TrEMBL record, chain A:
Domain of life the protein comes from: Bacteria
Family: Belongs to the acyl-CoA dehydrogenase family.
Pfam families, per the entry: Acyl-CoA_dh_1 (PF00441), Acyl-CoA_dh_M (PF02770), Acyl-CoA_dh_N (PF02771)
EC number: 1.3.99.10
Domain Acyl-CoA dehydrogenase/oxidase C-terminal: 221-367
Alphabetized GO MF terms: acyl-CoA dehydrogenase activity; flavin adenine dinucleotide binding
The entry's keywords: FAD, Flavoprotein, Oxidoreductase
Domain Acyl-CoA dehydrogenase/oxidase N-terminal: 6-117
Domain Acyl-CoA oxidase/dehydrogenase middle: from-to ranges: 122-190
Cofactor list: FAD
InterPro entries associated with the record: Acyl-CoA_Oxase/DH_mid-dom, Acyl-CoA_Oxase/DH_mid-dom_sf, AcylCo_DH-like_C, AcylCo_DH/oxidase_C, AcylCoA_DH/ox_N, AcylCoA_DH/ox_N_sf, AcylCoA_DH/oxidase_NM_dom_sf
Protein name: Isovaleryl-CoA dehydrogenase
TrEMBL record, chain B:
Protein name in UniProt: Acyl-CoA dehydrogenase domain-containing protein
InterPro entries: Acyl-CoA_Oxase/DH_mid-dom, Acyl-CoA_Oxase/DH_mid-dom_sf, AcylCo_DH-like_C, AcylCo_DH/oxidase_C, AcylCoA_DH/ox_N, AcylCoA_DH/ox_N_sf, AcylCoA_DH/oxidase_NM_dom_sf, Mycobact_Acyl-CoA_DH
Requisite cofactors: FAD
Keyword Cytoplasm: no
Regions that span the bilayer: none
Record has Oxidoreductase as a keyword: yes
Source species of the chain: Pseudonocardia dioxanivorans (strain ATCC 55486 / DSM 44775 / JCM 13855 / CB1190)
Annotated Acyl-CoA oxidase/dehydrogenase middle domain residues: 111-205
Similarity-based family: Belongs to the acyl-CoA dehydrogenase family.
Amino acid sequence: MSTNDARDELRRVVRQFLERRSTESDVRRLMEDEAGYDPAVWTTMADQLGLQAMAIPEELGGAGFGYQELCVVFEEMGRALLPSPFFATVGLAATALLECGDQEAMKRHLPAIASGELVATLAVGEERGGWDESAVDMRAQPSGSGWTLSGVKRFVPDAHVSGLLLVVARTAEGLSLFAVDPHSAGCRVEVELTLDLTRKLSRVRLDATPAVLVGRAGQAWDGVRRALRFAAVALACEQVGGARRVLDMTLDHVTVRHQFGRPVGSFQAVKHKLADMLVDIESARSAAYDAARAVAERDADVELAASVAKAVCSDTYTRAAATAIQLHGGIGFTWEHAAQLYYKRAKSSEFLLGTPGHHRDLVGRALGI
Amino acid sequence: MTAELDLVVTTTEDLLRSHPPARTPRRDFLAAQFDAGLAWVHFPVGSGGLGVAPPLQREVTLRLADAGAPDGAEFNRLGYSMGAPTLAAWGTRAQQERYLRPLFVGDERWCQLFSEPGAGSDLAGLSTRAVRDGDAWVVNGQKVWSSLATISQVGMLIARTDPEQPKHRGLTYFLVDMDAPGVEVRPLRQLTGEAEFNEVYLTDVRVPDSARVGEVSDGWRVAMTTLMEERVLFNRERTERTPADLALELYRTRPDPGPELRTRMIDLWVRARVQRLNSRRAAANRTAGIPGPEGSIGKLVYAELNQDALELCLDLLGDESMLYDSYEMSAYTEESLTRRAEQDVRRLFLRSRAYSIEGGTSEIMRNILAERVLGLPPEPRTDKNVPFSRIPRG
């Protein structure tokens, strides 16, 4: 079987599973749910489909597939709008552990992530917002043989259901990464009311909370930055999946809906918007797939490819979801229609891991301008 | 396959031995290449081919390029890219023998006589008439946007032979001798100052029936082959310096472009990169036999991207953009065709308005994407099954 056939087969399996287990009514139920995800679906994803294990190396309990395979999964999850800590756990935390290269931490946490036992997340941003070095003020204090952390982390995806928080903080040596058990003393996780109800974000308050250093003190940023870029590629694939879903949804609508005695999709004003949406989405798809390939092959310019993908896919998804609402007319503005769910996911994921403007600025720096 | 590959490789090596490119005049080399069957290897023997699989042409092209052999395409762009494939698909054996060799060696340059003042996007609404007279046709009408017509010998013409049929069905395809009496070519000056295109007036031009390509009244299908090949011309990934490269070069020469231009520069660079990735994915899918929608997207995206890039170039150039190099009227000549000088960026900027019009307007491209790729219902058409003679025009 060729690589492409294998990916098509993976896509088919994941799509079929999500069409059954992440229907619109499931999504709406979980939006109101405190945990915000379905643990039974999570377990099936781990036990039967092996999704959490996919891109984790075999010696750490994973299946050792590449990043491009993982990105197929993200695209399908974005398409189904699956509410799940999968992005936080696999996209952020597992990638951060792998990129920071602390063998002991990897051995402790990755097998548990791979098996589906552990939900984890990565905490970077604070009150100011942002996802780069300058966003981090939190201090780590040495305490006996370990460390304690104090301060507030914001916009942490799925922290409220995580058993492991990976937290970026400053030591005298510089930026460092810490593992925090959210049940430890002084740790409070407060779920916020989010624009996008399908992905929960938390405020994490730490007050002299004990923490275990991951990697070397002051040496974390290179690994964390790479992890954030790779996760941005996963997010870009999620965005492509969502964008294509709203296009499909809109095509169905304009073919069925009649006004002036014709399907509304036969009017050029409508057609041209959809053609532009198609062009946008296929371009975004090219950017996302190229970035996934760059991660898998460890291209020298992988971070540039990631920033291009995150910028382009973010803009595309929001534009596509907004156009979908417009072309649905009044029904698209209602709570009962699914268009709003995608629009909120689109707008919110523009900010997650850095705005399109931020990523374009990174591209400019890479070009030396 | 291996036998075919051997044949192609051996024949190419023989050609290069018998006609060393460095010491062979260009026309002689092209003639020898044609006679060896290496013009289009998949064409029949005797018509410039060896009757082998089309992908083997690549083996020839690469070897000839390495050896520094001449490329006839730059002297007869439309003949090579559109004329030859059309003849291969629809021409009779006699027509292939008559036209292909002169086309390939550069004795006859080709031009296109399709668009009319009254038939642009709606090409099938054309009104140039061809009326049968014995073993010939008498053609009357006016064509426009014919590039290279001043220096061409063969015109690819579609004309209406039956106005009582619905518009797509009464058309016939001919090859017109551009030197025949009654063919008048007038250069059409465009907004850049020069004349890349021409108007072609056809007054009682006699075209022998032997120069008809395809059946009478079946010209639309023949023309489609020509037009598909034209779109490929616009759609390819360009290897030369692109307008986006040009903008970045200009950007780097500006001491302090400021945040607004920086944002636009980066955005443009990102768009150019993404479209390059799109083209590559389209090409990879075509090779794998999956014709994806990204193929039809290229023409539309490149047009708008390059327009924006050239606009940015002018904004980067600053006040110098208020000046121009020369509005002197000039048309294509044999000479200007051989030296393709670096064009002034302001001229390219003005020229770029045509990108979204020529070869199918962006609006028509969007219709195609919406109807053929997304499967949306066609707009109701009042001219669909009506005899052409009863369709209002103007």
